[in-house]
Design brief:
The protein has 424 residues and is an alpha/beta fold. It is 38% helix and 21% strand. Strands 2, 3, 4, 6, 7, 16, 17 and 18 form an eight-stranded mixed β-sheet that branches. The chain has an eight-stranded parallel β-sheet with strand order 8-9-10-11-12-13-14-15. The structure holds N-(iminomethyl)-L-glutamic acid and fe (iii) ion.
Length: 424
Amino acid sequence: MPETADLIVHSAAQIATCASPDGPKRGAAMRDLGLIEDGALAIRAGRIAAVGPTRDIRARFSAPQAIDARGRAICPGLVDAHTHVVYAGDRIGEFEQRIAGATYLEIMEAGGGIVSTMRATRAASIEALARDAAARLDEMLRLGTTTVEIKTGYGLSVEAEMAMLGAIAQVAATHPATLVPTFLGAHAIPPEYRGREDAYMTLVVDEMLPQAAAWYRDSTFAADGVPLFADVFCERGAFTLDQSRRVLEAGRALGLGLKIHADEFTALGGVGLAVELGAASVDHLDVTTPEDMARLAASDTVGVVLPAVNFHLGSHHYADARALIDAGAALALATDINPGSAPCPSMPLVMAIACRYQRLLPAEALNAATINAAHAIGLGDRVGSLEAGKAADLLILNTADVRHLAYQLGGNVVERVIKNGAVV
Ligand code: NIG
Ligand code: FE
């Protein structure tokens, strides 16, 4: 008697499983996609029951529904581990200022940047924030992204940060993507606290973080076992290393997972802090020293690089992702989609940039965009690879070779997206 399944997807030229049962991939394992030729998957109750050669899966399972992948390639749904996808307004004016020669930090110091998006976001309703974020997530889903981390950080007051969490919860209730919330009250000093940075720190640590943690405890995220992270922008003109420590230690005391924006423009020591506190990830890493790369490699913290930022800022400098992999760090890729430094919904474009400017092989970019990204947001045991027991999140491409995801540029090779076992 064959086992029953709800759906069998079969006859893929290749399935890139990205399987890695013992944690994120490192070093030479990054080049291994766990390929299965003429592959199939059996899906039951939204999860993968089995993956293997088409002949074996069809002999072992019967299902009322089948999808013939017709010789196309299949890979896991992509995981975007760093986004600011909830925001209002745009920063097209700053885009033109930068084209004329101004830098991101100069614009930020002159009162633009994050604070300009804060003004637009504070003025928007929760419903409008949720609606605009859902539209962006729809596009990300069409481009293959099935799991998305989402940060607050454009509210910068207790009410407005809680409204951003409310917007994230509202989108999560209706959108097919799996969403992971991150609290980023320490993204910038809001104008009303300029010159009173310590008072803002106290607000973040004593009021915002405890309220965010309380919100989380009663949320569907907690009920579903999805973590809430605390994050901080450790950078000149944003938060110092000491202030970052204060935020992350407060987050840890509340039982939250930890993340940090570190080494984007200035190396302030954020990598060491992340490793010391056992952060899930440290993100940006554009100017990280070789010593800190070694420190990261020796830890369980995932390094997330965001090359769409360098690209959008017109920089010719990129994080040395090649050196990070070669040092043994667990490397992930993310879009950082936000209106200022990366208005980019596309993980495949990020993979494409990483291959061209950071010398990743397409296989390394795919592992960085799936299994390692899942570990960066605490969901490494649920999404990011095609292994029995995990969510049935997978992409059927319009090509027979998964490497086309990173090879092609500016189009969309994703033909069909299956999320939790359902075609979306
Ligand atoms: O990750 N670096 C800080 N935060 C974002 C930028 C946000 C913005 O400019 O609005 C980032 O690049
Ligand atoms: Fe960011």
